[in-house]
Amino acid sequence: MKKLILTAIVGLAANFATAQNIDFGIKGGAVFNTDKGKVWEDDGNIFKRDGKASAGFQAGALARVSLAGIYIQPELLYTQFKNEYDVDGQNLDVTKKRLDIPVNVGKRFLGIGHVQAGPVFSYYFDDKLSVKDFTTAKQDEFNVGMQIGAGVEVSKLLFDLRYEFGLGKVGSDILNGSKGQYRTENRPQMLNLSVAYLF
């Protein structure tokens, strides 16, 4: 799967490099994780509790290809956010780190605004835990979601607000020594507020 994603990125880059009306840029911004997530505890009786969501950030690069009145905008982004859980009276933060490849199709209007939508492919490569007694035994690595959003363009600056929702859930299996095993689970639902600069 990793090789497939890498091949797709290289293929997209090669195609875009030979296209006309193409702009490259960098972007960064804040992500507001709106899904609280759940933690499942198995100590003979399985039950679940809601967690807490928090803000994060993302940064990366983009390309914009203009074609017949619309544009295609693939991006490569590093995204980080976290959920907080109460596990046996301890506050456990699970910080999720992932690489995102959104591919949005957009339309400009009135010379300043734009709307866009498209899929986002995510690779989760690290679930960092805030409590040393806990270790990540296993985590889900891939997820696919959708984004829809709008924004404004001022010269070479792009201001975007997007809503992202995952088509599936992602989770982690967590061990707490000999005290028990837990599983966190959330469906990505985020508001992404970003600014980009086109070269």
Structure description:
- By secondary structure, the chain is mainly beta.
- It is 8% helix and 71% strand.
- It has 1 helix and 14 strands; from the N terminus they run H-E-E-E-E-E-E-E-E-E-E-E-E-E-E.
- It has an 8-stranded antiparallel barrel. The protein has a 5-stranded antiparallel sheet with strand order 3-2-13-12-9, with no helix packed on it.
Could you name the key traits of this structure?
single chain; 199 residues; mainly beta; eight-stranded antiparallel β-barrel; five-stranded antiparallel sheet; 14 strands; elongated
Task: State the helical fraction.
Answer: under 10%
Task: Specify the number of helices.
Answer: 1
Gyration radius from CA atoms, angstroms: 19 Å
N-to-C CA distance: 32 Å
How would you sum up the major sheet? 8 strands, antiparallel, barrel
Strand % is: over 45%
- What is the ordering of alpha helices and beta strands? HEEEEEEEEEEEEEE
**Strand order in space, largest sheet:** 1-5-6-7-8-10-11-14
| Total DSSP E strands | 14
Q: Mean pLDDT, nearest integer?
A: 87
Q: Overall 3D geometry?
A: elongated
User: SS-based structural class?
Assistant: mainly beta
Task: Write a brief structural summary.
The chain is mostly beta strands. The chain has one helix at 2-17; strands at residues 22-33, 38-42, 46-50, 52-53, 55-67, 70-87, 90-109, 113-129, 135-139, 142-154, 157-166, 170-175, 181-186, 189-198.
